[in-house]
Amino acid sequence: DHPLLRKTVADLHSLAQRHYRQDSRAAEIAVIVSNRSLWYQRFNALQQDLVARQMVESIARIGAPYDAYLATDLEHRDFPFDRYRLYILLNTFYLSPDQRAIIRERVQTGGRTVLSVYATGFVSDDALSIDGMQEVTGIDFAIADGTLRKGADVVISNTQDPLTREMTGGTRFGTRGELGPIIWCDDPEASVLGDLVATDDAGGVFTLAKRGGLVVKRMGDWTSVWSAVPGLPPALLRTIAQRAGVHIYEQTDSVVFASDRLLAVHVLAAGRRRISLPAEREVRDAITGEVIARAARHFTADFPPRSTGLWELRNPD
Fold it and tell me: Is this prediction's pTM over 0.85?
């Protein structure tokens, strides 16, 4: 019942009333998750790393909004395929024949990028196979039986590719949970961006032959990116998104929510941020109505620590 909280809720309610039903989504990233894939997975922490942590700690900090869907949503007649430039397939181990066909016909086209994580397509109705992964990703793989109980990492080893040019060589990411089977890229036509590194239960290093753990394969009308492990950092995801043509609003791992009429940016550390817009807009503080910029493609904002900025975006006069 604090007056400031009551006023804030009232202001947000008024804002929602002004834009409800007239606003439209601005996300150019579609994140696809699968509930049926849980049927084929051992109960462990990998699911958390693949979905919850990857979405909350990394994808949310790309600097652009995203929309999340179930794999079954791809089969809906109104799915907005053309809205998205980047598709991220997180835990889609199982994909039905119809979903595989839809991905092939509606997603892998138009210059889009598809980022697949770990065992995308490994499970079909009648087999567990890396052939199913190749069908979805267009990349050839090799596989080793067994489980890495201490997880695995990818180490960035190629900073010459446009996708990793902004990364520091030796950057590591991955999972500390159980991971098995062990899968790596075995495709001479794919560019290796990072090596798979893992430690077995005896303390031995799994990779000696620089097995491909992060790769890109440019297929002509689309681009396939694959990671052997979850945990891709925001900076890497941001570059992948930018190369896919996604508009990036903010470049410093902040959380961005955006629609056609509203924009919010949440920061952890204090400081000035430069925020880019996809088109010229008039920018107003959503609570006070103060005009921040007119006919602008970008503006700056000063943030206290752990704070959120909220703006209305209007067509310039």
Answer: yes
CB-CB contact of 302 with 309 (8 Å): no
Tokens standing for 272? 């000035």
| Beta strand spans in 51-90 (E) | 67-70, 86-89
Around Cβ 311, how many Cβ atoms within 10 Å?
Answer: 25
Q: Each residue's pLDDT tens digit in the chain (317 positions)?
A: 999 999 989 999 999 998 888 889 999 999 999 999 989 888 777 778 888 889 999 999 999 999 999 999 999 999 999 999 999 999 999 999 999 999 999 999 999 999 999 999 999 999 999 999 999 999 999 998 777 777 889 999 999 999 999 898 889 999 888 888 889 999 999 999 999 988 665 555 555 456 899 999 999 899 999 999 999 999 999 999 999 999 999 999 999 999 999 999 999 999 999 999 999 999 999 989 999 999 999 999 999 999 999 999 999 87
CB atoms within 10 A of CB 281: 22
Kind of pairing between the strands at 29-33 and 67-70: parallel
Q: Quick one: how far is CA 50 from the chain centroid?
A: 11
Q: Is 159 exposed, middle or buried (0-12, 13-18, 19+ CB in 10 A)?
A: middle
Q: Collect contacts of 57-62 with beta carbons under 8 A, ≥24 apart.
A: 58/231, 58/232, 58/233, 58/234, 58/237, 59/29, 59/31, 59/88, 59/234, 59/237, 60/255, 61/234, 61/253, 61/254, 61/255, 62/29, 62/234, 62/237, 62/238, 62/241, 62/246, 62/248, 62/256
Q: Which residues pair with 87 in a beta bridge?
A: 30, 114
